[in-house]
Amino acid sequence: MTVQEWCLVDGGCIPVHSADGLQEVGLRSALLDSHTYAGLAVELPTMTPVLLRQLLVPVVLDALGPIDTETWADMLDAARFTPGQCAVLAQYLDEHRDSFHVFDDVRPFGQAAGLTHPKDVVKPVTELMPHVATGNNTPLRNAHTDADPMPVPVGEAVRWMLHAQSWDTAGLKTAAVGDPKASGGKTTGTRVGPLGSLGLVTPIGSTLFETIVLNLPIGARPDGDMPHWRRDPQGPTWEERTPAGVLDLFTWQARRIRLIPLHTDSGLHVSHVVMSTGDRMPEMPAWEPHTLWTIKKDPKKGSVRYPRRHLPGRTGWRGLKTLIALDHDTTGVETSTVLTQIASATLTGDLPVTYPLRAETCGVVYGNQSAVIDDVLFDSMPIPMAALRADTALRGSVIQVCTQAENLAYALDDLAKHLTLAIGGEPLPPGKGQQPGTKLLHTLDPLVRRFLTGCQQNPDDAELDQAHHAFETLADRAARAAADELLHRLPGRAFNGVTEGRGSDAKTYRQASAERFFHAALRRHLTHLYPPAQETKTA
């Protein structure tokens, strides 16, 4: 394929899991054959929402028009695009084919034609990749640097270009020639990519088709809302504005980029790139469909919504209460719009209560004034459909199991703290060092996930009670084993303990009292294993 011919419609740019293994397919196959693919096969988990939001979902929305609830449900029921929908999608791709040419002279896809830096300086294509060291940005999983150019196939380069549009770091950017807002060859005030400020939740279905449909926002589109490939060609000039609608938001051009092609013995590649600042949003729209929200009351503005970012070091199920929070008036948090749509579908019967839904949570941790990427956050977990309904006992059990696991970790940390005081030591401050509760959470993690997976089968009350009791039995065993490990390392002087303070302020810390508090916490939190009525007998 020549430079002029390379087009995303048929060129391999979307990696998928197929019956024949990993494949890279073009937009046409990714959509029309989406029911035959198990899902996306991405390099980094942050790439999944990028490909859905920047390519697959916008093409479907723009081609088929606004999706209402009935159409959305019919699509899931059909489990594939109908022949009529396939014809419309194919026609759309043919009609806009020129807009998907990667190296077009006038409007290369997702790029600014002719974009240059002063003195024609270019950067290695690794500038687009957060897992490769570039300048002062440390690598996540790769030892290559920007002094070690690594040409990549065109399809891969396009993916990383879209990834940069979504997740790039903030800080000073080299200004493009012709940028009227440049100062001293630099552009200041550049913000992180639009996804970098969100707590993203991406629902995942059984096939790529189902995943696409689960991520389609339902509702009308405002006038003027369109993807970037139907807007005027980009240049070095950028602006601050509010997205016109969800298509504009999903395909937001937060950077001005130009990919530079390179002919190699193995075909057409990209080795270098020009990248400068792009459009900016004053704030994230309250209708952004993929993020979790914190709702705060403001005396003047009423309820104000803030994107709720994921916390480093926390597995997804530890935030499950937020993931299934449908009523912000009572919780102060709210789940994403796409999960709310799915919850509504369970109430109407459009989605079976046993549907094997998964939710992927991902985010980026920025450091040093958001100019570098310190870490990528990711988790994937089963979501029992019945837990999305407020009127089910299963919802309460799911929340309780996740809360119990955390409470056992807190109880173990308290035990470690009191045992340290019992030998005259200085306990670790909360959140510092390797807390024993963190290790316990790793042990409990597969138990929680097994419980959630079992709940996807919508067990009856007796089966649910049995599963919950089994979880508590294993969790109790794990917590006691972790406590024994702490006790076995304890010096003998902990038996007598240490007294701090004098007179009425004196407080004695002993091994026996620390153990007593810990066992009381187990009985208090594991209510199926230790019913309150039996507490006195068990104690």
Oligomer, anyone? single chain
Shape: globular
* CATH architecture annotation name of the domain at 392-539: Orthogonal Bundle
Rg is 27 Å
Could you characterize what this model shows?
Helix 2 (47-64) crosses helix 4 (83-95), helix 2 (47-64) crosses helix 5 and helix 12 runs antiparallel to helix 13. The N and C termini lie far apart (76 Å). This protein has 539 residues and is of the alpha+beta class. The protein is globular, with a radius of gyration of 27 Å. Helix content is 35%, strand content 17%.
Topology:
Elements: E1 14-18, E2 21-25, H1 27-32, E3 39-40, H2 47-64, H3 69-78, H4 83-95, E4 123-124, E5 152-153, H5 154-167, E6 171-174, E7 186-190, E8 200-204, H6 208-214, H7 246-250, E9 255-264, E10 267-277, E11 292-298, E12 302-308, H8 320-323, H9 328-331, E13 333-334, H10 337-348, E14 358-367, E15 372-382, H11 393-422, H12 436-455, H13 461-488, E16 498-500, E17 507-509, H14 511-525, H15 535-538
Antiparallel strand pairs: 1-2, 1-3, 4-10, 5-10, 6-7, 8-14, 9-10, 11-12, 11-13, 14-15, 16-17
Task: Provide a quick synopsis of the model.
By secondary structure, this protein is an alpha+beta fold. 35% of the residues lie in helices and 17% in strands.
Which key features would you list for this structure?
539 residues, alpha+beta, Topoisomerase I, Chain A, domain 4, three-stranded antiparallel beta sheet, 17% strand, globular, disordered C terminus
